[in-house]
Amino acid sequence: MRIACGGIQHETNTFASQPTTLADFQRDSQCGDDFAPGEVIERLYTNTGTIQGGFLQAAADEGIELVSLFSAHAQPAGRVERAAYQRMMNLFLDRLKAAGSFDGVALDLHGAMATEDHDDAEGEIIATVRQQIGPQIPLVVTLDLHANITERMAEQADCLIGFDTYPHVDMRERGDEAIRTVVRMVREEIRPTQSYRQLPLLTMPPMQCTLREPMLSLVSELHALEQRENVVTATLAMGFPFADIRDAGASVLVTTDDNSDLADQLADEFAGQLWALRDQLQPELTSIEDAIRFSRQQDDGLVIFADGSDNPGGGAPCDGTVALRALVESDFQNAVVGVLYDPETVELAHRTGVGVEAEFVVGGKTDDRHGAPVQLHGYVKTLGDGKYTFQGPMRRGCAGDFGRMAVLQVGGVQIVLASRRMQLLDAEMLRVVGVTPERCRLLVVKSAVHFRADLGPMASSIFDADTPGIHRPDFAAFQYHALRRPIYPLDSQVAFPSGS
pTM to 2 decimals? Predict the structure, then answer.
């Protein structure tokens, strides 16, 4: 049995000013300018906590041939440029055609990519692949929990399998599930029948976290549903709200073994459970001033201030300065801010040298929506090349590269800077330059939720930040034009949709 696999992943923030280029995908994918397939993909992802890692392990366990054709991803930012999308799709389709005969296809997609031409880029990808392989070849697709799932995506794929967790610590398991689902289809052991429900509901990242209520209980209900007789899999997609497209928002899918009535019934029931929790899925935000006061009143314990408004994992620039400025001006002791994207200051720090004092202008260089640059006097505490290996639950075993890094000490505040824009989701991303997060009093992370997987257990308290930015978890900060209406919580009169 031969299964072809590949994928393009991008979470597109349509409110971001920086477009996503082909060079961004080439740099972040680490597969060369032409996204080398086969052995390169195996070298990067074998024994890692990723979808591709799950693909590879399941194929080995099942004793089948996995033909890895293409793997590309880029850090979230603005819309993917037309030329980038076309180049990647042409490469993948050419390789798919040249691969010869195969029994099934598994795609590793995100579900919230938008290009200059396609608001529903994944729908376009799946439909294009379906057209090339024909209606009989099994086609299974993995999606992020933040996927804005569309009817087209559900119609064109035999089975959509979304992540169950946020932080996304189950990627390897979902990749494994996808390959085993294709295998079962090829062996005619199952005939997946999907039921898709799109809810008129937008939610923000902080409360989408599956480590906290109400999502913790909702995911438990999802897993119980999957144990029902004749159920193949089920998906809860909370959507990506920073995309002004028609289909942004929450949806559910239930896939049964050739039982459309059961799929419809369970999809309606589970969608109803999600809808009933809509008021509980709206976050409460805390200012940096309140977080500082709280931390000073605590006898001990790490306080984490999650600056999700400037989260690069959702397309923000990662150089916001609101929290940094407040910490320095309040003379807070034993704080860490990181990881800020500021290659200009990193370069100056490397020229200055470890232990040397200097004047620095930090952050606020991408736009004027995340705080102005901060003029600081401090010294270079450490320098590094930014290379590390993920050790936490997310992406464990994968190589990471921040580019050159620097740590500045300004009063009682350590500022961790990098030459590449990347979300702080693993303690190793700080330890690589000598910062031990568990020993500090207040840690400002450029992340909304993913940091909780590895850094969360170290904290005594965690606050969702009330800061400005294009990933701010506050619907009042955004003007939607393409989004379908009415939708909760933007509109007051929203009816729960009946099943189809």
Answer: 0.95
